[in-house]
Design a protein that fits this description.
This protein has 67 residues and is mostly helical. Helices cover 81% and strands 0% of the residues. It is elongated and about 50 Å long. The chain starts with a helix and ends in an 8-residue tail after the last helix.
């Protein structure tokens, strides 16, 4: 079973990578660093929250595990 701390660290690292990629895509798509950055921050906040919840739910499900 994974600890909450590990789940959060994994989520933060994953979302930091996503933040950079989303900011670049937003910049390319809109031509504006401000708009691209805002899109990236909003997306990262939503994604981080959903990922942590998703990981914690699955951490409690024993289906498919050899326990």
């Amino acid at each position: 079973m994974e600890t909450r701390r590990r789940s959060v660290v994994k989520a933060v690292v994953w979302n930091a990578m996503g933040l950079v990629m989303m900011a670049l895509v937003g910049l390319i798509a809109t031509g504006s660093a401000a708009v691209g950055g805002t899109l990236a921050i909003v997306n990262t906040g939503i994604g981080l929250t959903m990922y942590v919840i998703y990981e914690r739910v699955w951490a409690g499900i024993t289906w498919g595990r050899n326990v």
